[in-house]
Each structure stands twice: as C-alpha cells, then as structure tokens.
Amino acid sequence: MPHEYKIASMPGDGIGPEVIDAALDVLDAVARYSGEFTLSFDNLLWGSDFYKATGTYLPSDGLETLKKYDAVLFGAVGAPDVPDSVSLWELLLTMRGSLQQYANVRPVKCLSSIEPVSRHVRPRDIDWMFVRENSEGEYAGQGGRTHSGFGWEVATEVAIFTRHGVRRIMRFAFETAASRPRKLLTVVTKSNAQRYGLVLWDEIAEEVSKEFPDVKWDKMLVDAMTVRMVRNPQSLDTIVGTNLHIDILSDLAAALAGSVGIAASANIDPTRKSPSMFEPVHGSAFDITGKGIANPLGAIWSSAMMLEWLGEKQGSMLVMNAIEKACAEGNTTGDLGGKLNTKQVTAAIISMLAN
Amino acid sequence: MPHEYKIASMPGDGIGPEVIDAALDVLDAVARYSGEFTLSFDNLLWGSDFYKATGTYLPSDGLETLKKYDAVLFGAVGAPDVPDSVSLWELLLTMRGSLQQYANVRPVKCLSSIEPVSRHVRPRDIDWMFVRENSEGEYAGQGGRTHSGFGWEVATEVAIFTRHGVRRIMRFAFETAASRPRKLLTVVTKSNAQRYGLVLWDEIAEEVSKEFPDVKWDKMLVDAMTVRMVRNPQSLDTIVGTNLHIDILSDLAAALAGSVGIAASANIDPTRKSPSMFEPVHGSAFDITGKGIANPLGAIWSSAMMLEWLGEKQGSMLVMNAIEKACAEGNTTGDLGGKLNTKQVTAAIISMLAN
Ligand SMILES: CC(C)[C@H](C(=O)O)[C@@H](O)C(=O)O
Ligand SMILES: CC(C)[C@H](C(=O)O)[C@@H](O)C(=O)O
C-alpha cells in the first residue's frame, strides 16, 4: 500500500498561488509516476485577502487545523496595502513559532547552466546548506517604544537566546553537517560586539562539537562571513547562525548562486510533533503577480524538500533531477535568462520526471 | 601661515603599526608637497600589549587626552590571547561611543585595475557611500545572561534606538546624499520582522526626507539589499542603516569591489565637539603580522578621509589620486594581485604624489 500524506496547501499572496499551483502539479505527477505514495491536498486560503475580509490572518483554530496535516506547503505572504510587520507576524512568524519549526533549512547550489555571479567561482564551488535558527533571537518579537513620537523616544528590539534554543539548533546543525559528505560546519556569530547571546552561541558550539568528533567546524563573524562567501565559497559547506544573520546570508547566497527565484526553504520541527512547512524564499512579488511569469523553481524545490522530510527520498530525487535537467536545457523563466512562462517551466519539469 | 593639525596616532595591534607607519609617511609627504598645512603626530601605544601590562586598554585620562587632538588615526585592535569582546569594547567601541562619533562613513569603489567580483558588473558600477549608525542600535552594549550555565539560561542582546540617535544619523545620511552628484539614498531596515526600532527608522526616514526634497530615496530590507548589491550595484549610491546592518553590508561591499584590504572608514562626530577617528576596516590580521606584506591602502585611504574632514580637500585629493595611479600601474600588494610589500606600495604612492 502506498503511504498517503495529507498536505495543507497555503498559497497566500501575490505570486504565491501561481508557484504553489506549479508545485502541486509536479507533486501530483511525481506521486503518480513513482507509485510509492499518494498525496492529498487541502487548500487553505489564509492570506491578506482573508485578513481584509475577516480582520485576522489565521482563524482562531488555524494552528490546530494545521496540526492535522503531515506538512504545509506555503507560497508567500505580504500585500501592498497591509504593513509587512502585520502580515508577517500574524501569519508566517506565528506559524514558525507556534509550530516550533525551529530549524529553517536553506540549500543553495548552482544548478546546471546557471553561472555563479563571481568571476572567480566555478558552479561546483557553491554547494551550501544554511541552517537558520527560526524560533527566537532577533525575531523573538520582544521590544517596544516609549515616549512614542517625542524627541526623547526610545525603541528597543530585544533578541532572546535561550540555552535550550541554541543547543537544539546547534545539534541540528552538527547533525546536518555530519550527514553531508564533507562534514564541515561553520558557526556564524558576532560575539566580538554582541557579548551576551552571541557569546552563548560560541560556548554552545564548543560544547556540542564534542558530541560530533567527525565534524570539522570553525567560527566566523557575520561581517567577515560575507567576504568568505564571495572570495572563498568552496571552503564552506553547512552554515549555522541566528535568525537575522542567516536571513541576510542566505539571501546573499542565493544571489551569488544565480537567482533568488530558485531558493527553497524548509521550516522544520525536528521533533516531528508539529508539521513542518516548506516555502520558496522569494516572497509575494506583487510587481509580477498575475502575469504568469513567476519562476516556479523555488516552490518546486521546496516540494522536493518536503518529500525528503516525509521520507520519500526517491520521489524527492526525481524532482531535483528534473529541475536540474530543465535548467540544463534552458527551460527557464526570464530571471534565469530563459524564455518560458511559469506553466511552461512546470510542464518541462513534469516531462523530465520520466527521463 | 599653513594650518597645523595635531593628530593622535594609535597604531594598536597586529598589522596596525605597519599600516599606520605607511599612512604617516604618506601624510608627511603630502603635507610637505602641498605646503598648505603641517601635521604633528603623537604616538599613543594603547592596545593589547598595553592592556596586558596595565590591565586596561585606555588609561583613566585616555578619552580626555584624545580630546586635545584634531583627529585620531587608528590602526587595529584585537589580539589572539584576549577575547575580542574585551578588546573591542574596552577600546574601539568605547572611543566610538564616548567621543559620540555617531556616523561611521565607508566609501566603497572599484579602484582602477581592480576588477569587481561579479561578471555582470563594470568597475564604474560600484561607487557607494555607506553611512553606518555608530553609537547605538545593536551595539548599545545592553543585555545580559540569567541562569548562566543552566539548562534554562536566557541571554539577551538589547538593541536601543533613540529618536535623537536615529534622526541625527538620518540627517547626516541625507546631507551626504545631497552632496554627491547622483543625490540618491537607500535606507536599509528590517522593519517587517523588527517592529519597534526599525519601524522607527522607517518613520524618521519619511520625516527627514521632507527636509531634503532634492534627494531621491528608497527603502530596502537588509536581506534583499544583499541581492541588490550583487545584481544591480549601479542602482545604489549613498546607503544608510543600523550599526549591525551596515557592518555586514559594508564588508560585503568591500569584497564585491575587490578587497577588504583597501576599505577605509571614518568615525565621525559631525558636531565637531570631539575628534573624529579614521581607521582601515581590515582589523589586526595576526596571520600576516610582522611580515611586512599588509596592504597599506586601507590606512592611506583613511588618512585621505581625515584630510578631507580637516578641511584639506586638496591634500585629500592628492592622496586619492596617488592611490588610484599606484593601483592602475599594478603597484599593489599580493591581496590585489601585485608583487610589492607594504613599504614598496607606500613608496610608490609617495612618488605618485608629485605627478
Ligand atoms: C518575510 C520575512 C519576515 C522573512 C524573514 O525575514 O524571515 C523572509 O525574509 C525570509 O527569509 O523568510
Ligand atoms: C571589530 C568589530 C567590533 C568592528 C565592528 O563590528 O564594528 C569591525 O567589524 C568594524 O566593522 O569596524
């Protein structure tokens, strides 16, 4: 009997529905083609339109509803007429936090036919796995404003680092590094200037490293890390850091590797108590919404990560190989130099599944 | 009568003394050559050796002593056997804060003969002026650790943003943008995730922009900003942001433009109540200390910024032109592909002053 997975599909805003449609088509095709599993999808229309109609991004039982699924496939959130701080905190950041998806995983590599940006870099020099702490740190949500609007106003942003939170992400990162061929980990901090939470990161890295004697690891300051990514990309493999630091570095990575349009991510609860959530990195991109030209590769790659997380390694590899081949043959959207639209790229990938 | 300036020279640690020596030689030469000003230097040996001998980085009257000078030329601080969080907070960050050098200015451009890293970029596409808030934000120094070492430990890093502090750096940035030919300013925040201090940044940018109707400005999120720097560098000119955000982006900028070894910075008190401090960005670099091969261009460029700030625009331009010419003729250190050592590069620049 093929295993059946129940997936919550949350297309959200902007180009979200266009790329999630593409991902669902690919997932349907790979399930049929492999025969090893089936997928059923429920479409949850929580996003900015829902908010404008109801005053809330998530219905009151929304998180409970999500917990009934094996995984969540998420498009994008954010609308021109809602402040981003509202849409993101009420939907995306609430889900990441409440479902304790504490590991945000972002693979970045150069797909065939996509040249890295740097003159000094060959495509195979970039094959990185970013592990972003996804539940605390600079995104803990604490802080406030006092004397708002007056000349003596003070605003704070309080980054919270718990030993529990840092240890679990550090273990996850060392495990990730140990599972990859090169077994290399770089721990990013800014502990020269940030003397409390980031020094805690350094200490916990030392501690946890003892549990993983076969992982080679080093430390980098976040500012110097940008230089290393540009000048010496082949020295890096798995990379772990705080919520904000890796937010910045993983966007840079996608740009250096060729395009943010292909960047995929997984918001993972490694304990598997809650469903994990898979989302392209690109966001709602209202400037190209409705034109049918959005690059679906970020969403399709995220679906491949979902299959892998569900245990369907072969299905996941089929999708990744199809993406690689479609790129190698130039079947890409304009942002990658190709001439196809969203549906044509999707069709090309589906036709490659059988190869 | 030529104006006489009193300069505090603080070579500090690692390659600091080597590059500051080079800068002093160039400054001496340009003063002699131009005849419009004279410079006297006092050598202040406050750094990690001083700390190891006395237990403190700055003597108790150190800040008062510094206030007697017209400017400070600083090399680098940081030693392998002192935690960076100690050396930086006791010396560099104390000076920046106590002397209210609230504007950290970092020009980044491609010098002749140095190719930008990106395949898609021509040298003239990169000509950026970074303005970094240098006195508060993520470097306010607040935070702490509770239940240290226990499983339930919590550490915080508290970023502090005052309306006063944000307004003064925003005005400085708009003024800087207004003084440059393109009159373009990009304000970097992360106000979608950081809802208090960074939303304050957005609001103050709107307010201050009204005072500068001829400056064209836009807003970018710090993560997306890395992508724009890589893909679309020519769309950027002056850039302002928080202490941490611009720390990261300015290192990335230097790497994209060719080398961190040439990056210069000025820690400015725009009110001129305290002396401003000029420092290369590269740091102490103990791995190459004592070999005589450090790139002196960061320190020499910083000296040119010092002359400009003192009002010696012609002297400053002489130095910048000499740097440009030395690079164009390939008179560079190994990090820039050249074959010269520190002293030879310095001699080449001095010989170009007269051209
Ligand atoms: C949209 C934004 C809040 C989000 C983040 O910063 O986490 C995005 O940039 C990302 O990287 O997923
Ligand atoms: C050494 C360090 C504290 C410093 C900083 O982060 O300010 C350096 O990176 C810089 O950019 O001047």
Automatic annotation (TrEMBL), chains A, B:
Give the species.
Answer: Lipomyces starkeyi NRRL Y-11557
The entry's protein name is: Isopropylmalate dehydrogenase-like domain-containing protein
Query: Into which family does the record put it?
Result: Belongs to the isocitrate and isopropylmalate dehydrogenases family.
Mind listing the UniProt keywords for this protein, alphabetically? Manganese, Metal-binding, NAD, Oxidoreductase
Do the record's keywords include Transmembrane?
no
Q: Name one GO molecular function term.
A: metal ion binding
Q: Does the keyword Cell membrane apply?
A: no
Cofactor(s) needed, names only, are: Mg(2+); Mn(2+)
Superkingdom classification of source: Eukaryota
Q: Which residues form the Isopropylmalate dehydrogenase-like domain?
A: 6-349
Per the database entry, which stretches of residues form a coiled coil? none
Where do transmembrane segments lie in this chain?
Answer: none
